[in-house]
Amino acid sequence: AAAALQGLKSVVASARWKPNGCSAQARLPRSTVKPFLAKVGRTAFASREESFLTSSSWSVKFQNALSKVFSLAGGSRPEPDWRADEVGGAMSEIREGKAGVLLADENDVFYNKAQVVNRDISIAVIKTFAKKRQEELDANAKHMKVRYARWKKKSKGGGQEQNKQRADAEGAEAGEKAKPVREAPGLDILEAMAASGLRAMRYALEIPQVNKVYANDIDGKALDAMRKNIAHNGVEGKVEPTKSDARVLMLQNPLEYDVIDLDPYGAPVQLLDSAVQAVCDGGLLCVTATDMAVLCGNSNEACWLKYSSYPLRGKHCHEAALRILLHTIQSHAGRYKRYIVPVLSMSVDYYVRVFVRVFTSANVAKDSATRVSYAYVCNGCHSFNFQRVGEKKTTAGRKKGGVGVKYLPGIGPAVPKLCEHCGSRQKMGGPFWTEPIHDKAWVKDILRTMEQGGKKEFAIFDKCRGLMTLIDEELEDVPLSICLHDVMKILKCTPPPSADVRSAIANAGYRVSSTHDYPTGIKTDAPWEVFWDIMRHWCKDHPNPNRPEEGSVAHAILSKEPKIQAKFSRVFNALSKAKMSKTPRFTPNPESYWGPGMRAGNGGQKRKRFMSAPKDGASKAAKGQGMGTGETASEEPRAAE
User: Fold this and answer.
1) Backbone phi, psi, residue 203, to 5°
2) Model-level pTM?
3) Largest CA distance in the chain
């Protein structure tokens, strides 16, 4: 350390090191670097000094090494100013939250700024998850007792000291003698496709309960970028980069991770089977799907092959995409006697994102068929109904007080061949997840976490808060939504204000709410007969000069007499609380062309998707021969960030 400090003094003098940072223009000359490395020796930098001299960003790495020498010599570590647009020649820095990543201009590593909403909300969800784990451990939940015992055995009692400190602190606050308490172990997070590592850096820097983030990618260039960015952010002890096929890595570590984040470029289906095995009991699985054209019904056959569900096109297609994804995750989990509990599901911009907890129980996993349903949608009036795939019946057991459980196929069909409202034919799709897609307690805690952090902690706070506010108001146990513009297009009538329709439904004695996936949608548990009666009253009070033609859908609906009297007087419970408080809900995108980014390394050209990184020249040879090698043949999504 003394030799390193002596060498450091000469470097500071020659490189004009600033106490409060280092200018990007203050390059360290190689003539100074070589003798300094020779004086410091290999003990301070291990085998990494060669890369400082050979890498294109050697000055950036060397400046980080200087910070390490400060810590070795017992001095204070200077904080370089990396906010310059250009760092290290062709390297540019991108800052988001508390993290900053250096990226080359050649697009060798994928980065998508539009996913900032995804990353912000993921941080809030994982923070909430950490609090829930502590509450469950205090309540002696079985899965947390197992996780705590495993962690204690792995750390060989290393957690006793932090538990004692927590007990002393709580006892001091209460003015009582400290009681023995247990602190939940830190979170082990796997980001299966890390690319630049921005998400992993933000997890490590912004979530206090994180123990370690494993940032994985199959691409060697992405791995180099992660190592550089880990040193750049000073999170060497919290972020561990790995180079592996994501599926193999998860299969090699069963029940190992508290949180697994899957954010692929495309469909996540080929990662789900290994993910549900690698996440621990009670762990959090975060899954993104960007293939919305498939999930929303533009490619029915592709959706069936990937997700084992048939999509139905309509204004509710984005929520249907969420329910298809949840059904697929549950089908994979059920194979290993596991089941999922969704805590948050959202449709944002061009993708869907779900957060589910995975538990192990053979008895609960048997209920999977009762949680999904087939959907019938009318071709004319677009009304929809559901039919459960399976039913669960309980009977008295043979023993006194015993209960017998029997699983039966669902009874159907749930609707007649022709729609009872307009006489049109109906199409069938699914299965869809028809249980709640949110946990209201979680949503409120997540929203509270975001409001406490504000714009300082969340990069795009307004958009995230608006989205979470809408989800908080949404009826979580009502599948799919109704688009008022679509309804009035069918009836050929002037659209009513959304507040009037919602008030009429509430006056009829039913629940109603908005929906987060589009502004003109509503969700209600009112039967279709009641909804169409309300629309008949509205059309009667606001007639269209051009009467609907006989035989049309509008004529078939409006020709029937309503059975209830609609009341359009405003009801407070039916109105949006966020709208009345002027909380921004559907905020505009911050920039133009806010959408999916260009795939990394393609030079602007489309190319086949690989799970494994192609070898040098392998992709060209495979293209010329019309076939791929074993490493490049699988069509899997690569890293999404």
Assistant:
1) -60, -45
2) 0.78
3) 95
